[in-house]
Amino acid sequence: xxxxxxxxxxxxxxxxxxxxxxxxxxxxxxxxxxxxxxxxxxxxxxxxxxxxxxxxxxxxxxxxxxxxxxxxxxxxxxxxxxxxxxxxxxxxxxxxxxxxxxxxxxxxxxxxxxxxxxxxxxxxxxxxxxxxxxxxxxxxxxxxxxxxxxxxxxxxxxxxxxxxxxxxxxxxxxxxxxxxxxxxxxxxxxxxxxxxxxxxxxxxxxxxxxxxxxxxxxxxxxxxxxxxxxxxxxxxxxxxxxxxxxxxxxxxxxxxxxxxxxxxxxxxxxxxxxxxxxxxxxxxxxxxxxxxxxxxxxxxxxxxxxxxxxxx
Length: 312
Ligand code: SF4
Ligand code: SF4
Description:
Blueprint: H1 21-26, H2 33-41, H3 50-55, H4 72-81, H5 84-95, E1 109-113, H6 115-118, H7 121-131, E2 135-139, H8 147-152, H9 159-166, E3 174-177, H10 180-189, E4 194-197, H11 198-204, H12 206-209, E5 216-219, H13 222-227, H14 229-243, E6 246-247, H15 270-278, E7 285-288, H16 291-300, E8 305-307
Parallel strand pairs: 1-2, 1-3, 3-4, 5-6, 5-7, 7-8
Helix pairs in contact: 15-16
One iron/sulfur cluster binds near residues 11, 12, 15, 34 and 66.
């Protein structure tokens, strides 16, 4: 794939707006990749773009849409890295010491769960059953602060902290990651280890696929999907064609995000996103990959909503 380009390559075509949840909710061009890139071409600073940079949910739906192959997520991370607002948030967070990572693990597969799964033991138990007994569980946070949150805020992870976080993961062959932001980073940090999203891992299991129905509406988790769009579109196309179900894909095959689990989603009306996703559809069941989407869909529809791991 060609190297990613920076904001100066933006032509102003606006294709990035089509699936951007912030644009859908606000119709404010300043809060979009188009708006940020054009403003930077005219000399805007991170401080000038503060509101815009904070509004991005990092759902990733803009990046595969950009014909100029601009690193739109990197652009937001870079702007956050140079904004005092985001630095201050982390200094506060460092005061609240979270539990240390789980014990040293030496196993073929590690499941790295996020906060939502840590708080849902019944769902976690279902996932463990699907993968069998050889799975070790790690909680995706470290003793300083939450690494995924810092990644979203453009905070550099220092060497020692990163080494501590990665050391148990280096002893494994495969890491299954519930958090899309972390999954993308781990692919770079752990070059010898297979790193896959929880959604991809579960939807590959025969016992899960057998339980999917053609009348299901399948909701892809947006962050992991868009970060590996060129490869994962084949996986989900295969799933869709084999099962006959529908998915939250638009015409360009971007996954329309709910942003229910996004750290910065204050500008997005999640319920409206869900209504938009369901527009014109009458599925018999909604199957979600993101734990946060269970509640998001449950708020706006009477159709049963289940997590992929609950298909037993
Ligand atoms: S990452 Fe998502 S919220 Fe941010 S600009 Fe792109 S589409 Fe919009
Ligand atoms: S899709 Fe890319 S080139 Fe087009 S407006 Fe958005 S950032 Fe600019």
